[in-house]
Amino acid sequence: MDTQPPPPPAHRQQQQQQNRQQAQRNPPASEADAMAFLLLVIVSILVVVVFLSTSFSTNSSYSVLHQVPEGHVGAYWRGGALLKSITDPGFHLKLPLITKFEPIQVTIQTDQVRDIPCGTKGGVMISFDKIEVVNRLNKRFVYDTLLNYGVNYDKTWIYDKIHHEINQFCSSNTLQQVYIDMFDQIDDKMKEALQRDCTQYAPGVEIINVRVTKPNIPPIIKRNFEIMEEERTKALIAIEAQKVAEKEAETQKKIALSEAEKNSQVSKILMEQKLMEKNSEKLKEAIENEMFIARANSQADANFYGVVKEAEANKFKLTPEYLELKFIEAIANNTKIFFGEKVPNMVFDQRLLGNFFDRSTRTHHREI
């Protein structure tokens, strides 16, 4: 590797002098200058931020940065023409002085329509202090709705429409119907009427609910309605009192029936108990009778057996000789004295005595 020889001393001194002159012409930046530049940058940023925040917060036409709040979408007009670009919530940029911006609410909102006069079918003038309409604009139909009806689309399809529908309803019904009979139906009728036309002409507008307050009527008529309501209340109280009395009577009847049924069941149980006792006694008597009959039959059989045995014994015992002996003993034991001419013949007639013994023996055998 080749190396260049060092320069001569004179040339070296000349180069050092040139470097000193160049350093004097371009001095190094100091720390104070750096801090000043940084402060200038920070102030500039703050001015820009303040300007931009003031611009989009006031929705000025001069602003470049603007904010779309949550629950809204951003709609833009350029030269009076509605742009198709719809932005979501957040920060966005637009051309100042050329593009106009409006936030459009797409969440549920409540429009209050106040002081709505109308005349009933009978010619009585009444008014509604406030009617609340809960509605919502569908995000998919924001462009079409703004294109056809503008930012104040709800004035056409809610505020003006409520006035029209209320007057139509009042003119076709009497004060009695509007104030009392059909008042509970006004909410649903207004909702149906509004939604029907919105579905046909402004499909992006959804009617969620309608709340109608009680209308104001002339004081004299109002007092008459109050008197009617008081009388109706009294009638309802009387009807309810009658129902309570009927319920109490029905309750007493049920209690009496329950008590009678309980007594009937108790009597039935007692009767069944007595019947069971009688049946037990009857069964006991039947058993005792059977035992008595069995004992009587046994006794009769025993007596019969004794008589039969005695008869059999007498058969062998009652011989003519024995009977003649007993007859003689009986006559001998007789202390009576008979007088007459035939007494000796009767006592000592052997043939007569023999015949008597023969007849007695035959009779005894027939009985056995």
UniProtKB/TrEMBL annotation:
Biased composition (Pro residues): 1-10
Gene3D superfamilies for this protein: Band 7 domain (3.30.479.30)
Pfam families noted in UniProt: Band_7
SUPFAM superfamilies referenced in this protein's UniProt entry, alphabetically: Band 7/SPFH domain
Bilayer disposition of the protein: Single-pass type II membrane protein
The Band domain, residue ranges: 63-229
Name of the molecule in the record: Band 7 domain-containing protein
